[in-house]
Amino acid sequence: MSEKSSIMPEDVHRLLGKDAQRNNIFVARMVAEIVKTTLGPRGMDKMLVSPTGDITITNDGVTILEEMQIEHPAAKMMVEIAKTQESEVGDGTTTAVMIAGKLLENAEKLLDKKIHPTTITKGYRLASEKSQEILKDISLRVTPNDIDILKQIAMTAMTGKGAEDAKERFAEIIVQALRQIENNGKIDLNDIKIEKSKGNGIKDTELISGIVIDKEKVSHDMPTLVSNAKIALIDFPLELKNPEIDTKISITSPEQLQGFVMQEEREIKGMVEKVKISGANVIFCQKGIDDFAQYLLAKEGTYACRRVARSDMEKISKATGAKIVSNINELTPFETGNAQTVEEIKHGTDSMTYITGCQNPKALTILIHGGTEHVIDEVERAIKDGLGDVSCVLQSELVVPGGGAVEIELARRLREFSNGLFGREQLAVEEFASALEFIPITLAENAGLDPIDILTELKSRHDSGERNAGLNLFKNKVENMLEAQIIEPLKIKSQAISSASEVANMILRIDDVIASTGKGQDFNMKKEKEMYDEF
Length: 535
Ligand code: ADP
Ligand code: MG
Hints:
Layout: E1 12-16, H1 17-36, E2 46-49, E3 55-58, H2 61-67, H3 73-88, H4 93-112, H5 117-138, E4 140-141, H6 147-158, H7 167-181, E5 192-198, E6 206-213, E7 225-234, H8 243-246, H9 254-278, E8 282-285, H10 291-299, E9 303-305, H11 310-320, E10 324-325, E11 337-347, E12 350-358, E13 364-370, H12 373-396, E14 398-401, H13 405-419, H14 425-436, H15 438-446, H16 451-463, E15 469-472, E16 477-480, E17 487-489, H17 490-508, E18 512-516, H18 525-534
Parallel strand pairs: 5-13, 7-8, 7-10, 8-9
Antiparallel strand pairs: 1-18, 2-3, 4-14, 6-12, 6-13, 7-11, 11-12, 14-17, 15-16
Helix pairs in contact: 1-3, 1-4, 1-18, 2-3, 3-4, 3-17, 4-14, 4-17, 5-13, 5-14, 5-17, 6-7, 6-12, 7-12, 9-10, 13-14, 13-16, 15-16
Bound molecules: adenosine-5'-diphosphate (ADP) and magnesium ion.
Magnesium ion (MG) binds at residues 91-92, 157, 385.
């Protein structure tokens, strides 16, 4: 039933009851459908073209959904699941969205059988809680010293993500970096800076102890290498004030103008002098440094970079102990920081500044090399997935078998659990179980295998007690995932299942959509309704 209420203005659209529900479910399913083909090591990539023509080629669920600029409110809720997954765990975004989509699809079957939405949501909630219990039971403990296992986790996270050629090297970098920044079981991923450099191949990607920034020294006359660097961070310009913009002066003679300029130059000289007094031989300036200041600094043998991003300034501050000063008079030796070397290093046509041997050993940079921007960006996403997964494991120390093994075991035990329930919630728990099986089904489908054969084999192996049996897509065979070393952090699965079921329940409870489309036509319900009827 679609209606327009007389109590609301003309341009307000309203969908009620079943229409609202079905429309939302349809849209959420479409979102899941979009990311489905990217799941797993054999998943395909998507090419996304932005309104300005920028191209992104990716396999990463959250990136796809963010770039798509989705507008329908229910679809946006699905995108939110991916974003939460990304921020909480850093991986498992496709899985989370797919489970939510399947939960809604299965809920629709129950709605068709005239089961009330609140019964479904109750069953789903029970199943989701039970899943967490089962997950704890089937997870395994890993210690931070199990380096090989940590590397395997990083590699599983990166499979199928354009990082294939250098997976082992990346896994090594990821594990080494995280172990270095770990502090009593706590990890702040912000301690690892990711910088990108075009040129060379992805295998040249390196882990650097220190900070690398994508800036070159401002003047050729400055040294390329400074040892025992004393670093000053300043966020004001080292420039002559532009009289046309900043000040109003009336000048009546050439001498007066000359005098004015000299006065300004004296000021710059004074600033450079104060830098010298502070003992700094390296300057990172957030604003501009003009020619005259460059000249003076170069003469002093100082290394300087200008227009350094605020985020880089903060990272350098944390790494070297330098404080960011906003006024030249605040700059004293106490505000400077230390590093063994600051050096300009050339890669291809671009130069970067390396700050190494920092006071704080936890400052690290992963410098990704690659032939083109698209390659580098996809490698960055893969490395971030790896960092997310391994840091999860270092913090919670719990892992589960991948390749669909957890999902099959969960489904099996949820069905057992549902046998003990009464009433119609039982049906909802069963649908929840079959929604989880959608993951191994899709892994098989995306690899061109017969999903029914695979599912049957997986189920029977689990029924006979092989709870780690999953689909190994390196061999296209069902086998023990721990032996095949296809393992993932527990948190990926626990987070994906809980947020997927929360959102599915939230969408199921909506029976009225009131959309004010006056401003910019937020979404077109009529169009979606037509698509829905076709689907
Ligand atoms: P997500 O965005 O959900 O992380 P991915 O495309 O990264 O999606 O795929 C993750 C899925 O791929 C997980 O279920 C994981 O167990 C599975 N997987 C990873 N490596 C393998 C493998 N070698 N064989 C089978 N499944 C794998
Ligand atoms: Mg992944």
